[in-house]
Amino acid sequence: MNRKELNPDASPQAAYGARLRSLREARGWTQEELGTRTDYSSVHISAVETGRKPPTLRFSRSADRAFGLTGSADSFEREYRQIRHGNLLEGFPEYVKHEGRAAEIRLYEIGIIPGLLQTPEYARVLADSAVRRGTITPEQAEERVSFLAQRQAALEHPRHPTMLVVMDESCIRRQVGGPNVMRAQLDRLMQFAELPNTVLQIAPYGMGERRTFDLPMNLLTMPDLSVIAYAESQMRGHLERETAAVLPLLTAYHQLQAEALPQAASVAMIKEA
Hints:
By secondary structure, the protein is an alpha/beta fold. The chain has two domains: 12-84, 434 Repressor (Amino-terminal Domain) (Orthogonal Bundle); 92-114 and 156-272, Endonuclease Chain A (Endonuclease, Chain A, 2-Layer Sandwich). Helices cover 50% and strands 12% of the residues. The chain is built from twelve helices and six strands. It has helices at 12-26, 31-38, 42-49, 57-67, 76-84, 92-99, 120-133, 138-154, 170-173, 178-193, 243-259, 263-272, and strands spanning 104-109, 162-168, 198-203, 217-221, 227-232, 237-240. A hairpin with a 4-residue loop joins strand 5 (227-232) and strand 6 (237-240). Helix 5 (76-84) packs across helix 8 (138-154). The radius of gyration is 20 Å and the shape is globular. It holds the Pfam family HTH_31.
């Protein structure tokens, strides 16, 4: 049998197919056996695994039932929705998988409230604005808002991850959606700051050149204490696992926290805003 080597880093669809093959083979199933369990032909299974055919919602739900993943953070339906989300940057689908398992999440954001802290109304305004600009379709906007809600819900498990968030002052000064939407969003931030597993800080404009990052940065500490970094520009994202590359970013984040306002002063600035 000719076995095509898969490159999961080639695209989100390729990653989906590679994971499907990996889980199938881990259970010792042939493509025919998985096809029987999902009501698809072996030819269809092969086409999805090799990326020749895109996964569908129906296929993803069938695969979840076969593998016992329905409703889990690792479900194929979740991965399918990530692919459908529209304009997903390289590395982001893989980052989200790790995000749901992280013991500690460190975020730094510029210009907009971090997604995990956004209210549905704030997220909706951003998605609708992208539709008006023609960068995504209305269907992709719906997927974007739904996907964000799923990411937020995935963190609401019994062992909540510790979340350390530093936001540039521009995040709270830039009005999104008008006064009512923005007021509710700022209230949400103050509620977040009161949680026992969170720290919220503002990096004020006055930091000037002492601000250590010029782009958003996400750092995940996993249960095994390894650290994963994810950063993105307007055009692409990058997931980094190599310790030699991640440790300087972790140091820069600590320096950023030291220079940012303490949480009490940050909350006072949010109240003023």
